[in-house]
Amino acid sequence: MSTVSDRVSNGSQEEFELRRGPWTPEEDNLLIHYITCHGEGRWNLLAKSAGLKRNGKSCRLRWLNYLKPDIKRGNLTPQEQLLILELHSKWGNRWSKIAQHLHGRTDNEIKNYWRTRVQKQARQLKIECNSKGFLEAIRCVWMPRLLEQMKQTPSPSSSSSHSTPLSTMEAQNFTITSLHPNLQAPLTLSCLQPSKLESLNQPIEESSSMTKSIIGFPDSMRTSQLPDILEHPTSPAHEAFGNSDNSSLVNDCYYVDIGNYEVEDFNLLSPMSVEGPRDLLFSDGQMAGSNWIGDDMAGTLWNNMDELWQFRKPEELGI
DNA sequence: AATAGTAGCAACCGCACGCGG
DNA sequence: ACCGCGTGCGGTTGCTACTAT
């Protein structure tokens, strides 16, 4: 593959060629070897010292996004996707900040993921990416589904697309509690440590050891749709609902425990009034069906996003 | 089989910020 | 206060592989 090069004039110094474009294995080896011996930093000096005809920025980018040993490659797990959705709701396009909470993932990868997967869906729906409707669609459709999938696939690392060990996040407790007024008790979904769930039956403030996000839930869904789940014994959520003790109502929201991640309270509890997400989420018993989750959900989740949106057209949803 | 269109991703670019001289 | 340098970040581009026609 041919590479592009630029003639770069560096003041009074002699001109030299700076390579651009894709990195070759030889360049990668040079960079890896040099950093292994001398460490990171001073990228311009590093580039020269390592004998690379690249600028410092290029070396830094190559190392951080591709060569660094703890870089995690492969498809994003449902947990990671959920976290991205949540953190983006809170912080917007602060990719590096979001990446700090996804071990082994780079800001560039997350940014690409958002632009290619998430924004694609928004375009197809003719929804403004940062619009209220889009955010609500994320809250009311994608997040619940991701959570459902997390419950059904407690060990995402079993996915054939993953050869790396469990990420830090995957290894941590990941639970969801949905509180519904009609149920008078939380719905709790857990991926790894069901014993932890009891703590979520407490008010938020009392669950001090956990960092939580709160996913807004439209009134229409809370009052009329969640009970539908109970009517479908095959629903992933049915067991959790059925096991609730119906003893107390704490709040009308989703709690998402994200373990030890340093995620502050998510400000997603704004009231939602549209009817759309409700119809989208549970229409035709889709949510309760047992066949909408594949075996390899971690790897194929977003491949099914198109199907996910097929229940109602945007104009029908009023979003 | 050939071509066009599209998606995914690596890499680049420009800007902003912090810091030391 | 100013300047230069190194670094980090978000947006954008361009290449390649894949898919549809």
Automatic annotation (TrEMBL):
Subcellular location: Nucleus
Superkingdom to which the source organism belongs: Eukaryota
Classification via InterPro entries: EOBI/EOBII-like_plant (IPR044676), Homeodomain-like_sf (IPR009057), Myb_dom (IPR017930), SANT/Myb (IPR001005)
Molecular function GO labels: DNA-binding transcription factor activity; sequence-specific DNA binding
Pfam families: Myb_DNA-binding
Residue intervals of the Myb-like domain: 15-67, 68-118
UniProt-listed PROSITE patterns: HTH_MYB (PS51294), MYB_LIKE (PS50090)
GO cellular component, one term: nucleus
Protein name: Uncharacterized protein
Source organism of the structure: Camellia sinensis var. sinensis
